[in-house]
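Batch manifest, entry 17 of 40.
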Amino acid sequence: MNNRSEISKLSRAKIISLAILLVLILIPESCKVMHLGKFPEIKTDNSLYRDADISDSSNIALVPWRELFTDTCLQSIIEKTIVNNPDMLVAIARVKKAEAAFRQSRAESYPSLNAGLNATYQSETGGNGVPEYYQLFASTSWEADIWGKYRSAKRASLASLMASEAFKKAVTTDLIASVAINYYNLLALDAQLSITRRTLEKRISNAETMEALRDNDLITSADLVLSQANRYSTEIIIPDLIQRIYETENVLSLLMGQEPGPIERTSLEQQNLSEDLRTGVPAQLLANRPDVLQAEYRLRYYYETAKSARANFYPSLTITARGGLTEASMNALFNQPLFVWSIVGGLVQPIFNYGLNKQRFLSATADFEESQASFRKILLNAGSEVVNAMHSYETATNKTSIREKQIGYLEKAVDYTTELLKYTSTTSYIDVLTSEVTLLSAQLNGVNDKLDQLQSIVSLYQSLGGGWK
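Output type: structure tokens
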């Protein structure tokens, strides 16, 4: 009997020694094969803004949207959009989901605690009675986070939460910009409609004047027909402008999350946005622009996920404790119970799951590499949008100055040719028609220049990450 006990002890010792040896062999192999470097350094340089003159860190993105957009009607639309827009509601729901996931990841590192009541009935050998066995117990189990698996998972969940917060900020920035751009577009259409209607009134009056001149043989019937056609060529512009106004109002209603309807607004002439356009330094994009922030947090998420996946290769240390009351009858269980307890520690090294764990780790590292490329692309796109918006503003400003001179000379040309038509035979109505058509086109384009100027400021504000603060 003693020999068997000694043999059994020797066998157990050999098994334990073999297990320890196997763990010691596999740990270095796992470390060698599944290497993961440090988190990459994230930085930018001034070349991201091409040839822009960067003098200081002052940044238009730091200006609250209520200070940038002083039009009270526009402010009201933005406020309603932030509260009611469906995309914003989706972003808020994503943040709540990410918060729940983060709290769940924190709870996973805590010990588990279970409680229960067992009752056992068993026939005795020979059929003499049915003994009863009752147990009231509690048990807890905790896995030591030696390799940082749970810490990495918690950091990954935190990064996911921050990415959701950044997504919400990105939605806010995009919605504010979309509202402002469509609002200014609506004001520009109003201005073009007003110009066209005033021009139409002049064309109708001119047609009547031309008819009188034809009756006095100062112009031909062909000139009269051209003047009438000129009148209708102006009038036909109005239905298209009204349709575009109608559609733009519906777009703004949709952004506000409400049924289509008219939009209360001011006029294009009343819009005076700040011309002190400051881009700051490119490094500020990392802190201001929400989609860049989101990409950075996603990068952190995949890095921590890869670290957590790598920890699966290493042995896990689990400590389990169990304690409770036990007795042969229910009455005795609560009157004079016997208290029993146990504590067990176990070190487990995955062996047969090595291939599965390896593929999980490789998949996680591939996601991390993909997120690195995505982050770089988003950052480059952000820099491109900033310089494009700046250049667009400068172009629109130059065109506005030139357009004002063009319109001034065209107005004089219309007046001169109209008067010359009445008193000289060397001037034909073709000259009047050409100057009138060119003037209307220049006036409508002048409105577009003003619109481009306003929208380029909005685009710059958006590209720098303004609006969510």
